[in-house]
Amino acid sequence: xxxxxxxxxxxxxVVALDQLSMTxxxxxxxxxxxxNGAGKSTAMRAVFGLVRLDSGTVRWRGAPITxxxxxxxxxxxxxxxxxxxxxIGEQLRYxxxxxxLSAAGARSAAMAWLEELGLAERAEDPLRELSHGNQQxxxxxxxxxxxxxVLVLDEPLNGLDPIxxxxxxxxIRVRAEAGATVVLSSHQLDLVEEMCxxxxxxxxxxxxxxxxxxxxxxxxxxxxxxxxxxxxLTPEVPPxxxxxxxxxxxxxxRVPADTDPTQLSAELxxxxxxxxxxxxxxxxxxxxxxxxxxxxxxxxASDAGEVT
Length: 308
Ligand SMILES: Nc1ncnc2c1ncn2[C@@H]1O[C@H](COP(=O)(O)OP(=O)(O)OP(=O)(O)O)[C@@H](O)[C@H]1O
Ligand SMILES: [Mg+2]
Description:
- The chain is an alpha/beta fold.
- The protein has 10 helices and 14 strands.
- It has 2 domains: 2-217, P-loop containing nucleotide triphosphate hydrolases (Rossmann fold, 3-Layer(aba) Sandwich), CATH 3.40.50; 221-280.
- The chain has helices at residues 40-47, 67-70, 88-98, 103-116, 132-144, 162-177, 189-195, 213-219, 261-269, 284-307; strands at residues 2-11, 14-24, 29-33, 55-60, 63-64, 73-76, 150-154, 181-185, 198-203, 206-212, 222-229, 242-247, 250-256, 274-280.
- Bound molecules: adenosine-5'-triphosphate and magnesium ion.
- The site of adenosine-5'-triphosphate has 12 residues, from β2 and α1.
- Magnesium ion (MG) binds next to α1.
């Protein structure tokens, strides 16, 4: 397990991390979420000893992380860190050797990753001549070239087209399924919902919600209903339900989790024929909004408390 315990870091007046604790497990893909400025990149940098923490510990398999252990980790930083002028094949070989591979091992790993990512014929091209999405593929390959047991990826899917997202998402998913411990930060909550086993949501430098994503959704006290009535009619909102949105004839309702979907659908059907009815646990986006909203309210309350 990769364990971050009680991490705190201030930059002057700015609190970047405030007693942040979280755990990532082998064979699991962890979505690391939080609003801009929440402290995600700072926490990820701390795993690599790139932040001078005020307090807290980072441990892998119960022990502090030393240089040789860290070589078994792969990191895709937020500020991408490769050499723009170096040919991509040479670059991956070089990084592989830095991470402890033999010359021959680094050469074959670099070639294998270029093949995997569909860039083999570009091996001699400098990084800067590649498109943004292809540069991102090389950044991911650089993090993966030595087959790390821990992968920390800071917004790896940012700015990719849907095919790039699917390709890189699959590559990352496969690493987790092969047993790696993978932490991925992202603002694309629909993707995280599709890909990740676990989530941690942080705000104001502190962990606010963590756990198995399916369990978090199932245990939620609400369900989300999507309904479309014939003619796009907006239904009367049944008692105990809240209207979330109404767009193009599709109405979203929030209902208590113990609502009987068959009965609700029948009730709505008395107003007009039901053309679409979906009854699901709340989306990750809804859970994120609720979690972050509650922590903002809490922060404001504690700020007000300090003034009085
Ligand atoms: N080197 C630094 N010097 C000063 N302040 C910093 C530094 N690094 C981070 N911060 C501040 O710490 C806070 C957390 O930043 P961090 O980059 O970790 O957030 P983040 O969750 O990664 O945000 P984003 O989603 O925008 O990438 C922010 O207020 C940021 O301005
Ligand atoms: Mg960041």
